[in-house]
Structures are given as C-alpha cells and as structure tokens.
Design brief:
By secondary structure, this protein is an alpha+beta fold. It contains 19 helices and 27 strands. The protein has one domain: Gamma-glutamyltranspeptidase, small (S) subunit (Glutamine Phosphoribosylpyrophosphate, subunit 1, domain 1), CATH 3.60.20. Helix 1 packs antiparallel against helix 2 (about 90-105), helix 13 crosses helix 16 and helix 13 crosses helix 17.
Length: about 600
C-alpha cells in the first residue's frame, strides 16, 4: 500500500449460545415492487418483522460471495449497491448509490443534509485514500453559541434548533471521491434512489418505531406532514412513503453536481429554513459556496505483527481510539481468553477507559488544534498505558496520558448522540470502500428542506470553550471548524492487501462496537458475522457498559466486586463488515438493525 502511517476475580462460566443468536428472525415473503418498469426496479422484502427485543438482536447468517459484496443499513440500499456492482460499477459507485437510498429510506440517520468520512482503497495502484466530509461551523459561529445568561442551554434545546446546523459536507465528499476513483457516470448512481423516491418505499418497523417516539419531529412544521398522519400518529409499517421533492433534488445533483446543492435555490432554501427556526442559526450562502471536502492522510497501525489497521484521522476520534484500544490490548492476555469470559469484559473495558480519556482531552479538528496523533498510537506509549490495567481491579475513571507532542487542554464532557449509518463495498476489481455518515441525533435538527433533514452536528462541539481552570477545550466552537466525531470507518490489511472493511453507527459507542468486532475477528478467530453478533460491551471512561438482555448481564455482580460500576444499555449497534479471504468474500450485518449483506 502506497500510503502508510505508521483483589478477587470471580470467573463464571457462560454456557449456551451467545445472546445475539437468541431470537429468531421472521421474514415476510411478500415482496414490494416499485411501480417503475424496467431493470431499475428493486425487488425486496416488503416488511422485515423485527421486534427488536431487549437486546435488539436477531439471528443473521454469514453471507458469502465470489465476486463482489455490499453491506448496508437497509435492504433497499444493499440492493442498490449490488445492482451497481452487477452493472460494472466499482466500490465508490456502489457507495454513492447506497448512500442516496439510505437518505430516503433511513432518514433518521444520514443524508445530504449531513456529513461523513470515507475510506477508499484503489487496487490499481494499491493506495488508500481517506476523505473528510465533516460539517463545518458557520463563519459567524462564536464560542458562546450555546450559552444563555452565562450557562449552557440544554442539549435538547441545542439539538432541535437552527443553532445546531453545520454546513453539510456529504455531497462534496462523495463527488470528490467519485471524481478520483469512480467508474460509472455520476448521474447514473442516483437512479435507484430517484426511482424509490418517486414510486415509494414501505416504512420499516425501525423507522416507524423511531417516528413513534420522536415528539420533536412530529412538532416540526416542515417534517410532520411527510412522516405523520393528521391524527399525529406515524404512517404505519408497510405503508408506502413517496418523496417527490427529494427525487427532484437528486435529479438536479445528478445532472449538475455539487453546485446544485451548494449554490442556487436549494442553498437559499436551506439558509432560510435555518434562519427561520424559532431558535435560529447563522449558516449563510457563503458557508455553503465555500465548503470543501478534505482528503487527509490515512491513520494506520500494525497489530499482531501481521495486520495493518487503518482508519480516518482527526477530526474523527473514532479510528484513533479504536487503534489505541487494540494497541493497549496487545499487552493483555485477551487473545487467549474466550469472548464470553469475564476477564475479556474487564480488559476490553479498561482499555476503553484509557482510550476515551485521551480522546476527550486531545482530539479535535487538526486544522485548528495540534493533535498528537503519532504519540497517541506510539507502541511504547500504548505499552506504558497498558501497565495501568490491573488483572483484577478496575481503575475507575482514567486520566489522559502524556504522549509525545501533547499540549495542555481543558476538560471536555461533550455529549455525542447517535443518528448515523455505515456501509461497506468490495467490487470485482479488488477495490474497497468503508463509509460512515451522519446527521447526528435521530432525524438531526428536525429541519426538513425539500425532502431531506438538516444535521445537528454542531452539538458535537463542547458547549463551553474553557474548563474550570481556564484551559481552552480542544473541541471548542470556532468559525469554520469541524466538530469532533467518533465515526470510525476502517480497513484491515494483511500481506499488503485488504483483509477486512467495517464500521458502525452509534455515537461515541461506535468506538467500542468497531473495536469489539476487530478483536472478535483478529484475536478470537471469529467470522465477521459472529464477531458482530457478540454482545456489546466496553467503557467510555464512565461506567462499564454491557448489553442489556445479553448473557453478559450475569457478570454484573462479579464485575462490581472488581470495582466496575456497571450499567446495562440497549446498545443498538449497526456494524457492517466484509472480510476478504482466500475462499472469497464474507459479509456481515448487525442483527440489532435492519441491514443486510448481499453478494455475488
């Protein structure tokens, strides 16, 4: 690859299958066919009956293929991606098509009103490219943006306001990545989403459930009539939702590129919607016109000698924290333990505490802050951090370390919500893509413009610019700055070739979701699907978190005896992953959501 950076322990045996395989999945055989005629029509299950019980887990099987594969957060998106690959498109082409469909069928999570991070491997020259399409703060943004009468406003107020809207970056990023590595014409990649938007798609149980419990979206004048009935109830599961406004937007972007989004009527409509909110924001036409996606250096680290694990660097903290967790775990016996061993939970959580302590203190937009990236993943530094882990007692709350190149920052308790999606693709040419995108909280800012939602990503900034000691917080708000993220699209290389591509939605919990799957495959030798199915666990340097309803719950008292303060959480991860083996491709989709892996 051309681009390279380098007390008492109570052990209780767990018997039986893992919780992720505990609930059977039922698929309705009836299919829904969009009304459009011709080969562009998508043929998919009309409804996936998925009760999302306590664990949110239902059984999914490993998918195998010989030529190409995709895995995305909704079956319609997966079908769009596989159709692109079947018609000669490459991984970038498939990613663009899948993302546009996800904007339509999974509007709570991502779309052109938000941003994302993308990893693209080009097999022709054995190179890895990483793209930063993160939103930026408006030029008029100031550090007291979320401060009223000397105190921060509530997170709830900030989310559901024009103040939370950053300049969207997804369209610019995808266009630039496609311009560099795409194969099929840009315009052709929008056709699956246009067909679905015009002819309609059935509302899934997941979308219905999120609509049912989102009073803020229901009260949004711009969005309520699209998602809800006059009675105030969400449109029912399986009912057909059409979005002709978004279809027109897609057609315009398809024909005219990013200018159709960042200039002209649509740009003005976005600005007016933000300024017209009851708690208005200050995004301007100049912010949209001047937005640029940034190609950054990949962040890579050798793991277990034979693997090189790569991801997105800052302003995302995701891949960096995942690499730290892996580098710390190298100095523990976790690889010799079983996934369902209490000590696996202990070591994994302790490594997470150390990584999150550094993440919260050091990581922000590298164009504004000197982030000690090399120091944070330095092997000697991670070895020293690992010595802080006891074999039988939790350290509690970890403090940030002092890596080479460190600076003094303020303490930061930024909250990061999880309205995000992830997709992966591997094509027949050997190219691979890992894309995580987001509009932040579920349904973003709730501001609906021409069929799509605008993000609330600016709430990923620290609400205060200094801590109690007067030190500047690295992730403070500044004009044109990109807020810190936990998105972690990643690739693993073996013998200098792609071995695995993966990522997940889930706010700051993304870091633990992705790290768990990497440990599952690279340390425990599981398939990608079995690794995804493992109960979620970890620590974000607060509590030790275990997935509610999973078999790990039986360890709660034992972990507390070791000094862990334990919380049970639903943990609705959404990992999508593909492993490239000598026998072909193996794909996995998280059983906690409605995604699907497809291949040929």
């Amino acid at each position: 690859m051309k681009v390279r950076l380098t007390s008492i322990v109570l052990i209780i045996a767990i018997g039986g299958a893992l919780a992720a395989n505990a609930i059977a999945r039922t698929v309705v055989d009836e299919v829904y066919v969009p009304e459009s005629s011709g080969s562009d029509s998508l043929l998919l299950p009309k409804t996936l009956i998925n009760p999302e019980a306590a664990t949110g887990s239902v059984k999914k099987d490993l998918v195998t293929a010989d030529k190409y594969m995709v895995s995305a957060a909704n079956p319609f998106a997966s079908q769009a991606g596989i159709s692109i690959l079947a018609n000669g498109g490459n991984a970038i082409d498939a990613a663009v098509a899948m993302q546009m469909v996800l904007n339509l069928v999974e509007p709570q999570s991502s779309g052109i009103g938000g941003g994302g991070f993308l990893l693209s491997y080009n097999a022709s020259d054995n190179s890895l490219h990483t793209w930063d399409g993160r939103e930026t703060a408006p030029q008029e943004a100031r550090s007291d943006r979320f401060i009223t009468n000397g105190k921060p406003i509530s997170f709830f107020q900030a989310v559901n306001s024009g103040l939370s809207v950053g300049t969207p970056g997804l369209v610019a990023m995808l266009y630039q990545a496609h311009k560099k590595d795409g194969h099929l014409p840009w315009a052709s990649l929008f056709q699956p989403a246009i067909n679905l938007a015009e002819n309609g798609f059935p509302i899934s149980e997941r979308l219905f459930s999120l609509l049912e419990h989102n009073d803020e979206l229901k009260s949004s004048a711009s969005a309520s009539s699209y998602f809800y009935r006059e009675s105030g109830q969400p449109k029912s599961v399986g009912s057909i939702l059409k979005n002709p406004s978004l279809a027109k937007v897609f057609k315009n972007i398809a024909q005219n590129g990013p200018d159709a989004f960042y200039k002209g009527d649509l740009a003005m409509q976005m600005v007016n919607a933000v300024h017209g909110h009851s708690l208005p924001g200050d995004i301007g036409l100049h912010d949209l016109v001047s937005y640029k996606a940034v190609q950054r250096q990949p962040l890579c680290m050798t793991y277990k000698v034979v693997y090189e694990v790569c991801g997105m660097g800052p302003p995302s903290s995701g891949s960096l924290a995942v690499l730290q967790i892996l580098g710390i775990l190298e100095h523990t016996p976790i690889s010799s333990l079983e996934p369902d061993d209490i000590l696996s939970v202990h070591y994994f959580s302790e490594a997470g505490r150390l990584a999150f302590a550094d993440r919260d203190y050091y990581v922000a937009d590298p164009d504004f802050i000197d982030v000690p990236v090399k120091g944070l993943i330095d092997k000697k530094y991670l070895s020293e951090r690992a010595t802080l882990i006891s074999d039988n007692v939790s350290m509690g709350v970890a403090k940030p370390g002092k890596p080479q190149g460190y600076t003094i920052n303020g303490d930061d308790n930024t909250v990061e919500a999880g309205g995000t999606t992830h997709l992966v693709a591997v094509d027949k040419y050997g190219n691979a893509v890992s894309l995580t995108s987001s509009i932040e909280s579920a349904f973003g800012s709730k501001i609906f413009v021409n069929g799509f939602l605008l993000n609330n990503e600016l709430t990923d900034f620290s609400f205060e610019d200094t801590d109690a000691q007067g030190n500047k917080v690295a992730n403070r708000i500044e004009p044109l700055k990109r807020p810190r993220s936990s998105m972690a699209p990643m690739m693993v290389f073996k013998d200098n070739k792609p071995f695995m591509v993966l990522g997940s939605p889930g706010g700051s919990a993304i870091i633990n979701y992705v790290a768990k799957v990497l440990v599952g495959v690279l340390d425990w030798g599981l398939s990608v699907q079995d690794a995804i199915n493992l109960p979620n666990m970890g620590s974000r340097n607060r509590f030790t978190e275990i997935e509610s309803g999973s078999l790990l719950v039986r360890y709660k008292e034992a972990l507390e005896l070791m000094g862990h303060e334990v919380q049970e959480l639903e943990f609705p991860s959404g990992v999508h992953a593909i492993q490239i083996t000598s026998d072909g491709l193996q794909g996995g989709a998280d059983p906690r959501r409605e995604g699907r892996a497809l291949g040929n």
